[in-house]
Amino acid sequence: MADRLGLGIIPGAGWRAAEIRAVAREAEEAGFDAIFTAEVNNDALATAQLMGEATRQIKVGTWIASIHMRHAYACAKAAELIADATEGRMILGLGMSHRPVNAALGVEMPSPVAALQVMRPRSRAGCAARVRQRTFRNNPLWFRCRFI
C-alpha cells in the first residue's frame, strides 16, 4: 500500500471563502491526497464543501465535525450532498470537539459514547453509507462515513 498524505486545516475566525478554496487548490497541486478541516470557529461541513468545489481529485472532509453541534440526520444529509457534489470525495469524520469550546458556546457535552450511539443509527437512516466504527478501551468513540 502506498503512503498517503492528508493536510488538516483550522480555518479560524476571519478566513474568507476564497482563502479556503485557495488553500485546498494549493494542497491538491502540492500532491496531498486529502484535506480535512476541524470545527473550530467555522462550520466544518461548509468548509468541506468549499474545499470540494475548488478541487478535482483530492479527498475532502471533516477532521472533526462536532456531534454536539448538529442533529445526526441533518449532518448525514449535508455530508451526502457534499459527497454528491464532489463525486464521492467527501469523508465525514465526527467527534466531540473540546469542552472549553463547547462550554463557551453554551453547548452541553453528554457522554461522547452515548451521543455517538444515538447519532449512528440516525446518520445511517439519513444516507446510504458504509460506516466504520473505531473503538478505544471497548467504547465506540467515532465513526467515519464514506458516502456511496
Feature tags:
148 residues, alpha/beta, TIM Barrel, six-stranded mixed β-sheet, 5 helices, 40% helix, disordered C terminus
Describe it.
This protein has 148 residues and is an alpha/beta fold. The protein has one domain (6-147): Luciferase-like domain (TIM Barrel, Alpha-Beta Barrel), CATH 3.20.20.30. The protein is built from 5 helices and 6 strands, in the order βαβαβαβααββ. Strands 1-2-3-4-6-5 form a 6-stranded mixed sheet. Strand 5 and strand 6 form a beta hairpin. Helix 1 crosses helix 2 and helix 2 (44-54) runs parallel beside helix 3. The radius of gyration is 15 Å and the shape is globular.
List the helices and strands and how they pair.
Layout: E1 6-9, H1 17-29, E2 34-38, H2 44-54, E3 59-66, H3 72-85, E4 90-95, H4 99-104, H5 112-126, E5 129-136, E6 139-147
Parallel strand pairs: 1-2, 2-3, 3-4
Antiparallel strand pairs: 4-6, 5-6
Q: Any idea how many domains? A: 1
Considering the protein shown, what is the CATH homologous superfamily? Luciferase-like domain
Shape: globular
CATH architecture: Alpha-Beta Barrel
Helix content: 25-40%
Main sheet: strands, sense, barrel: 6 strands, mixed
Rg of Cα set:
15 Å
Briefly summarize what is shown.
With 148 residues, the protein is α/β, with parallel strands linked by helices.
